[in-house]
Design goal:
alpha/beta, Rossmann fold, about 325 residues, 11 helices, 4-stranded parallel sheet, about 40% helix
Length: about 325
């Protein structure tokens, strides 16, 4: 789908528009993570708009001729990509329309509107919202920005991998949340090109195991239903190109419950004052699960990829 060269170009292209996000050791906790390895957290939730999605959306904009976005930008999102598109449209000076499912976080809707987006709630889950976004694109001439099945978006997400390599060279395992698969595709492409021995552990909700079901079947499948309430990680079907990279680059999969992600979000808030949404806490939920796949790891990088207040409630 993309190459390391595409990611390097994206990094140069978007660097004036994104933040270099910090890292933090997951140390000195009252309730330490149940792994023998040391853990460092990549705090991508401090990215512009609160997630890694700002990288992909900005690369999509800057890699697209200006005349193709003159009628505006439209997308479908569980929340974080919509925020990134809203901000990207603001930078470009064009209107943004974001279709979201009913499970979207109200706080994220409020933030999208604060960025100037026209937010429309359509459908019980993302695939329905996505159909509405495509219909709007056809009727309006707006440019459709896919949240994951777009090479420019994926290359933008891959810049996170290069940044992590710059910051922490000695890790042997990386833990990353999956929704549609754009982040893990870009990230793993960068890592496997530069640090091929690093294990990529991907995390999905029990109620939306999109990539896991496809890997188990050996081909892309559509989930019969989605029961997760985490809109930012709920996707009925991934893209064929995303799946091909997943087959090649993902070393392990972990499924976590919505409740486990909430508890991980609460842990991040209590221990470190980090306000993560449930998808952002998915990597921590995987580490807190006690899954034996981490027993041989020496140093783990856990990506905290999205901001939110779910874990801060008393």
């Amino acid at each position: 789908m993309i190459t390391i060269e595409d990611i390097a170009v994206a990094r140069e292209r978007i660097s004036p528009y994104i933040r270099r996000t910090p890292i933090m050791e997951a140390s000195h906790a009252r309730d330490p993570l149940p792994v023998a390895a040391s853990v460092v957290m990549k705090l991508e939730l401090q990215q512009v708009t609160g997630s890694f999605k700002a990288r992909g959306a900005m690369n999509r904009l800057l890699g697209t001729p200006a005349d193709q976005i003159s009628a505006g930008i439209v997308t479908a999102s569980g929340g974080n990509h919509g925020l990134a598109v809203a901000r990207t449209a603001k930078v470009a000076g064009v209107p943004a329309v974001v279709f979201v499912p009913e499970t979207v976080s109200p706080a994220k809707v409020e933030k999208m509107r604060a960025w100037g987006a026209d937010v429309r709630i359509v459908g019980a889950e993302w695939s329905v919202s996505n159909e509405a976004a495509h219909d709007y694109a056809r009727s309006s001439g707006a440019s459709y920005f896919h949240p994951f099945a777009d090479p420019l978006v994926v290359a933008g997400q891959g810049t996170l991998g290069l940044e992590i390599i710059d910051q922490i060279r000695d890790f042997d395992t990386i833990v990353v949340a999956i929704g549609g698969g754009g982040l893990v595709t870009g990230l793993s492409t960068a890592l496997k090109a530069r640090l091929p021995d690093v294990r990529v552990v991907a995390v999905e909700p029990v109620g939306s195991p999109t990539i896991k079901a496809s890997l188990d079947a050996g081909h892309v499948v559509s989930l019969p239903e989605i029961t997760s309430r985490v809109a930012t990680m709920s996707c009925r079907r991934t893209d064929e190109r995303i799946f091909e990279v997943a087959q090649r680059n993902i070393d392990e999969m972990v499924l976590v419950s919505d409740d486990a992600m909430l508890e991980a979000s609460q842990w991040l808030w209590f221990e470190f004052g980090i306000a993560s949404d449930l998808s952002g806490a998915a990597s921590i939920a995987a580490l807190r699960s006690g899954d034996p796949i981490f027993k041989d790891s020496k140093r783990i990088c856990a990506i905290v990829c999205g901001a939110g207040a779910e874990g801060t409630a008393p």
